[in-house]
Amino acid sequence: MEDEHIQPIIVIKKVKGHGGAHGGAWKVAYADFVTAMMALFIVLWIVGQSKEVKHSISAYFKDPGVFTSGKYGGILPEEQKALPLPPAPVVIDTRAVEMQILKAEAEKITKTITQTPEFSKFKDKITVTVSSEGMRIDLLEESEGLFFDIGKAHIKPDTVNLLQVIAKSHLAKLKNGIIIEGYTDARPYVSSDYTNWELSTERANSARKVLEESGLRNDQILEVRGFADRKLRLPDKPLDFSNRRVSILLPLSVTDKKGANDQDSTVIVPNHVVSQIDNPVNVNFDGIVKVHQQGGGG
Question: What mean pLDDT value characterizes the chain?
Answer without folding.
Answer: 79
